[in-house]
Amino acid sequence: MANDLTDPTEVAPVDAVLASFARTPDPRLREILTRLVRHLHAFVVDIEPTMAEWQAAIDFLTSTGHACTDRRQEFILLSDVLGVSTLVESVNDRRPDPAPAAAAAGQDRTESTVLGPFHVVSSPPRALGDTIDLTGGGTPCLVTGEVRTTDGQPLPGATLDVWQADDQGFYDVQQPEEQPAGNGRGLFTADADGRFRFRSVVPRHYPIPTDGPVGDLLRATGRHANRPAHIHFIVAAEGHRSLTTQIYVADSPYIDSDAVFAVKRRLVREVETVHDPAAAARHGLPSPFRQLRFDFVLEPAEEAGA
Amino acid sequence: MANDLTDPTEVAPVDAVLASFARTPDPRLREILTRLVRHLHAFVVDIEPTMAEWQAAIDFLTSTGHACTDRRQEFILLSDVLGVSTLVESVNDRRPDPAPAAAAAGQDRTESTVLGPFHVVSSPPRALGDTIDLTGGGTPCLVTGEVRTTDGQPLPGATLDVWQADDQGFYDVQQPEEQPAGNGRGLFTADADGRFRFRSVVPRHYPIPTDGPVGDLLRATGRHANRPAHIHFIVAAEGHRSLTTQIYVADSPYIDSDAVFAVKRRLVREVETVHDPAAAARHGLPSPFRQLRFDFVLEPAEEAGA
Question: Are B170 and B183 in contact (CB under 8 A)?
Fold first, then answer.
């Protein structure tokens, strides 16, 4: 707007707002609020919202809050579709370049990705080899791998908290009527060699929930709502930094246009087809069977920084 | 963070997010979201939040949403204490400097201020001279003035939607048990000369609601929660731009440190003490009585811009 202003001090309240936060006892909170106020005011000045647009923003935030329950987190979903979750996650996952030798030996730590909105219930503890598919739908899949340190040592007793949508693309908490609680979830403990295995179904791409305000946003902007096929993991071991990540299926639709911007190329794997009748029988699977293999490399907690 | 990054493209998802909004059909929505994403990502990069801080932000927004009901708007309160409401309001209230002659003649339009979170119910229509104080508390006060145009013509039939906290600093909707609905509220219609008058109580400073997330924010930052004494108005007349504003009491505590940054000096008035027994009798008030006088000047709708 090129107009001269009747009272410029009154259209630039940012200094008054910053001053109001100047006595915040916690210096980190003061820093965050100072930056927030600067960006928020700059955003408003940039777009010069009408009062109706401001009200629409208030209404959108309110609806997003009201859509949040103990089983649904619409603000995390909003953070996800705006790329903020991945950005926050990446900022926390930044490290110096690994030493060339370690990188060549394949011992670089596994990258993390966003938690997502569906880790809202505890995963039931299960024994190695158990299935997390309680409904028998979809194509059976063996998921195997090992958990080790950046210096190549196995991590016996590492825990793997796993959650996954069913073959129709829904998590148990989204369908409390249709799915038993704990379907697609399991808490596993790696064996004495740091190895894990469990059965599931080949993951499928699926849309994030679109029946709330975030869905309205995607529709209004012509964006699709789909995530490529993946399995969530939180991998933890004594003395090591916990890893929150997702493993992606290489040939999944939307692998290049994830609605929540969370795909990292080093987390993408083929789901192999294994022709090994003995292994199939050992795992209680038909032959041939599908297998997804991924090794998790955790870094020592002391290298993780703050 | 000065570290080299393992994969710089993965810590700068902003371009992918901007690209995802590139096909938004509505160009205004596309512009708003583009600016939002740029500022939001820049904010995150600036502060480098920990995952715990990100989660705290999600929790704060969720609590704020859950605090919103049909009688309470915690997101407006948040917008208020961050100075955003006043900034949006001021951006929309900007005009070219008035012609010197009009300014000298006192015909500059009345400035607007924020709506605030308590205009959540309709004000009951009342006759000129009625009181909006249904509980008989506090010091009676006559509120009078006229509504006119920027060229000095009265606006007969202009409507004045009025709302005010009681003498304890609470709006009716905050105390549904203690106050009758409509206490402190009234919808008045100016007479044939554009004049209005109603009775109320002398407004008192009061804290904004501090029992929700916004109150937690104020406590954590050492800010007081008080607003100086004021009365809210929405003044409307055919062919004129509606005016949302507040009239402030000159000697009120917090007049220089409003928790929501909404005070404008030209909206501040003394509450006079009137020694006029005849006028007191005419208005049904004790003598002497208190009087707050304010004239509202509305601009034609066609000067209001977009």
Answer: no
